[in-house]
Amino acid sequence: MKAFLASPAGSAYAHDPDAWFILDTLVDYRCDHHGGDPLLWGGGAAELYLLDYVPRKLSAREQTLRRAPEILRAWAAWAGSRADLPPSVMQETLAVIEVIIRNASPSLGAGSCT
Predict the structure, then answer these.
(1) DSSP string covering 16-29
(2) CB-count burial class (<10 Å; 0-12, 13-18, 19+) for 47
């Protein structure tokens, strides 16, 4: 996480406690629930994290939870390049996150993402 926060992709979050909370949950989610590597994000993992895990498992202020898609987008792009994911996987992942940002992010903190 320190490498991300020191990078151009993550420097905006370096002094942001809400972002640190979300970043911690991103790493924990991948390590505990989906394969163990926090650098490997696909569209399915992003969708499950944002539409299931965030509203059901995270306890934080609504404004913090609403930032999860934005922070995941920055993390997934950075992590995918570090993990040498194929561009098609990274594009799919970022596309899924963009759809969620357009359609569901206002309800992420409300316990329902439908």
Answers:
(1) -HHHHHHHHHHHHH
(2) middle
